[in-house]
Specification:
Largest interface: A-B, 42 and 63 residues
Helix content of chain B: 55-70%
Number of strands of chain A: 5
Number of strands of chain B: 0
Largest sheet of chain B: none
Radius of gyration of chain A: 24 Å
Shape of chain A: elongated
Number of helices of chain A: 5
Shape of chain B: globular
Oligomer: heterodimer
Structural class of chain A: alpha/beta
Strand content of chain B: under 5%
Largest sheet of chain A: 5 strands, mixed
Strand content of chain A: 15-25%
Distance between the termini of chain B: 49 Å
Radius of gyration of chain B: 22 Å
Distance between the termini of chain A: 84 Å
Chain lengths: ~140, ~475
């Protein structure tokens, strides 16, 4: 059984050593890479631009509710169509997400605000892809 | 900087809480030499605060930084106070092996240190996790717990508005704790937290195994797991699948130590790890239940009626029951809409879908035995355990049974699943199946070392490489 244990350890070590160079390279890449601040790294996101998310967070009060409408002006990729509402939900907590009909603020992503069919004030551009409006209700 | 200080403070809190428990059950002795238990203390602290915190959330208790600190302090003090009624566990470190065997151990240890350093450095400088399930589900749930200090903080309950509301709350609570201690929503810290838990797991496994097994067997085996691409790739993602594997693996290690030494301390740690696995993700319930049952069967086989003290282990996966009550109270589904347990009662339906099981099983087997994913973790474990079977039959059979039953259970989910099979398997099978090589690869050096020790004892020789079997003053 000692022979089995020695064989087990030697083969395990040999297998592990095949991965040493990639790990070393990974460590070196980190050492020589450019360090970004935590706030920049927090905004690392592929589907909606960080500036858009940050602008929305600056515009909507923390206690307010908001909705999102994704349109096709210009045409929206299917993945982004699914991802955009979730991305805003991910970023805008603790603001409460609601249906556009019930929300105080509505983000229009690739959608002209005029097509919302409700009256609004304070239309602001968040980024090239999205605007935000404050809904006025009688 | 203050975010990082708070984050470090959180790790210290986890470590202090876990250390309190380790002192209380007699594994740590409140000495400088306990530094080897630092990783185990962090992992046990995470499990302890996670299980108690999750149950508190279900009861509607509001958790913020202050209440978390109080909870951790009270828990640590209560656990440490048990020191006065428990006996410290005897330690008999393995004797110094031959020099060339020590070299093998050092080389394995060095590779583990390299892997841990690279993982932490990469997580420290990397960005937020962009895995779809992380930002679409796990991180927002963590935000809800952080911002509203609970699960019911707003109307409608926002926790339930994200995908899979049936998943238990321990993992979102972990994220919420990171946010609370770092003073804000910092998703870039979540991969770092996961990497720290991964490093704590490796250190825990090393601390537990080397109590009985020499380093030249333990470290190369752990090094192979640490650098395996299948393990490495998930070291820094905030998906909880690998965290479940950590908890199950530590439970298996402690469970085997309990079978061998019959000390209550190991039973307590096994219980806690199983409960943490069950409350981290639904797959954890199945894996924990199978392991608890297997350990109970082994204890009964080995020790007769005295082994029935292991019945206590079945209560650990039952930690999910309060969560099911919470879900029912909020009129939420108790299981995933992705599969249907009811199909198990319809053999004809199952027979018609047998192709799904074949596709899932074949994909999982291919994945688990791919060298570019898991190196030789599973083939080596299978070979080593098969050759050791004669010297340590019951624990090895138990671990083998757990592996087979878990594989069938995980593959079975795809059999009864509702999603299109290729998509379902492609998006989840790899990360779910990863638990098997992590657990089996971690437990193998311990079983191999114990078998070696048994062989030496039986031969009447003292090779000085491991401690003898349990003594007459066993607690359980």
């Amino acid at each position: 059984l000692t022979g089995v244990a020695v064989g087990f350890s030697v083969v395990s070590l040999a297998c592990a050593m095949t991965r040493v160079m990639p790990l070393w390279d990974s460590l070196n890449a980190t050492r020589h890479g450019e360090y970004e601040s935590l706030s920049v790294r927090d905004t690392n996101f592929p589907y909606v631009s960080p500036s858009c998310l940050l602008a929305a967070a600056r515009t909507i009060p923390v206690t307010a509710s908001y909705g999102i409408v994704v349109g096709d002006v210009p045409p929206t990729d299917d993945v982004v169509r699914r991802a955009a509402p979730r991305a805003f939900q991910y970023w805008l907590l603790p603001r409460l997400y609601a249906l556009p009909q019930a929300a105080t603020w509505v983000i229009t992503y690739h959608e002209p605000s005029e097509l919302l069919g409700v009256s609004y004030t304070n239309e602001t551009a968040l980024c090239a892809d999205a605007n935000i409006v404050r809904i006025t209700r009688p | 900087v203050s975010a990082y200080l708070g984050f470090v403070g959180y790790q210290a809190l986890l470590g202090a809480t876990g250390y309190g428990l380790l002192v209380g059950v007699g594994i740590a002795r409140a000495r400088l030499g306990d530094w080897k238990l630092a990783g185990l203390a962090v992992l046990v602290g995470w499990a302890l605060i996670g299980v108690i915190g999750s149950l508190a959330l279900m009861l509607g208790v509001r958790l913020d930084v202050n209440s978390l600190i109080v909870l951790a302090a009270v828990t640590a003090a209560a656990c440490a106070a048990c020191k006065f009624v428990t006996e410290p566990l005897p330690i008999s470190p393995p004797a110094r092996p031959l020099f060339w065997l020590r070299i093998i151990g050092w080389a394995g240890g060095a590779i583990i240190v390299l892997a841990a350093s690279a993982a932490l450095a990469s997580a420290f400088t990397g960005g937020a996790d962009i895995e779809w399930d992380v930002w679409g589900m796990w991180a927002p749930k963590a935000e809800v717990v952080y911002y509203f200090h609970g699960l019911d903080g707003a109307v409608p309950a926002p926790y339930a508005t994200y995908a899979h509301p049936e998943y238990p709350p321990l993992w979102p609570l972990t994220g919420a704790e990171v946010f609370a201690f770092s003073g804000g929503f910092h998703p870039a810290l979540l991969p770092l937290q996961q990497a720290l838990l991964g490093v704590a797991f490796l250190a825990s496994a090393a601390a537990l195994i080397t109590r009985r097994v020499p380093g030249w067997i333990c470290f190369p085996a752990l090094a192979m797991i640490a650098v395996a691409p299948g393990f490495w790739a998930r070291l820094q993602t905030f998906l909880p699948d690998q965290t479940v594997a950590y908890a199950i693996a530590v439970a298996a290690l402690c469970g085997v130590l309990w079978l061998d030494e019959r000390r209550g301390a190991w039973l307590a740690l096994t219980w806690l790890s199983l409960a943490a696995a069950a409350l981290t993700k639904l797959e954890g319930v199945t894996l924990a239940l199978v392991l608890a049952t297997a350990l109970l069967a082994a204890a009964t086989l080995q020790h007769g009626r005295r082994g029935l003290s292991g019945l206590y282990l079945l209560l650990a996966p039952a930690a999910i029951i309060p969560w099911r009550v919470w879900l029912a109270h909020h009129e939420l589904p108790g299981s995933s809409p992705d599969y249907d347990w009811g199909r198990l009662l319809h053999p004809l339906s199952l027979a018609n879908r047998i192709e799904r099981l074949q596709i899932a099983a074949q994909h999982m087997i291919e994945f688990l035995f791919r060298f570019d994913q898991w190196l030789l973790v599973l083939p080596l474990a299978a070979l080593a355990l098969a050759l050791s079977l004669r010297r340590l039959a019951v624990p090895i059979l138990v671990v083998g049974a757990w592996g087979v039953a878990s594989f069938i259970g995980l593959a079975g989910v795809y059999w009864i699943g509702r999603l299109e099979i290729d998509y379902y398997v492609r998006t989840s099978a790899d990360r779910v199946a990863s638990t098997l090589p992590i657990v089996l690869g971690t437990i193998t050096p311990l079983l191999l070392g114990l078998a070696l020790s048994n062989a030496a004892t039986k031969a009447g020789t003292d090779v000085g490489e491991a401690r003898g079997p349990a003594t007459a003053d066993d607690e359980l």
